[in-house]
Write a structure and sequence with these properties.
By secondary structure, this protein is of the alpha+beta class. It is built from 7 helices and 11 strands. The strands form 2 sheets. Strands 3-11-10-4-5-9-6-8-7 form a 9-stranded mixed sheet, with helices on both faces. A hairpin with a 4-residue loop joins strand 1 and strand 2. Helix 3 crosses helix 6. The radius of gyration is 22 Å and the shape is globular. The protein starts with 35 loop residues before the first strand and ends in an 8-residue tail after the last strand. 34% of the residues are buried.
Length: 310
Amino acid sequence: MNDAANASGAPLVLGSPVSELTEHWSGAAYVPGDWRETTSFYRADRERVLCIGKQVWERDDAHPVGLGMFYSLLTQALFPGEGNEGKVTDLAPHGDAHTMHLPPLAVEAALAGRDDIRVDYLPDPGALARRMLDLLAGQRVLGLIQGASEFGPRALGHRSILADPRRAAMGDWINARVKGREWFRPLAAAVLEERAAAWFDLPSPSPFMQFTAPLRASAVPQVAAVTHVDGTARLQTVGADDDPLLRRLLAGFEARTGVPILLNTPFNGKDEPIVETPSEALAAFCRMPLHALALPPFLVTKRSEPELPA
């Protein structure tokens, strides 16, 4: 067999053999049983989860299978053992700087020598959260960068733009002025996990922002900036053991407004990737009409503040 090997020299077993699949997949009858599953695609509703397609690999290193193979290689290197192919999402919400051996964030270097910004040093997490909440409640839009970046095209509180979700005009302003994109593009909702059921019709937590769920009828007018035209929203539930700063912000925002939700969207501008480093975040902050940038324990504001959302 021609399997790849990890750094220790042990073979990596990629995907599950087609002959051992437990769910029904119509294509299985036409694929040799020793071929490996590397990516699966499902349609899910309240009654069932239906497999609608798979990407499979014939176990020949000379014939890679693209992104699915990359995910398999990465997850097997980080979490060895068959059955761990999907564990890549476990990296997403934690932002541990040591998870992938990333270097410390060079925040001080990014902020040094700038005369167009103000920098406040707030080593007490509670004080930093209170300042951020003051800005959010005052209709300011914030960038946030902390720890290691999330894996994949999501913003889960480590490379995020945050705002008050209560007014539709806020979503319109962010799409038009901050993101530079079409008015109909949706913006996500981060919500305290223990409060999610009161606001969304969702049967289980969604920590990776994977699902769009209907809002309760009473909730729709209270979070207009993150509500789609069909009364749904894409949400991220934030549990007790998840990101402490985002938890603190959500709880504080609920204490002030009665709404345990914040608008959350990836920290990037038009046609740009999500920011990775403090220097990229600061450059994006200065280009975009954001009102503040949190790089814990620092809070950055502009000496000339942009206009407020209409």
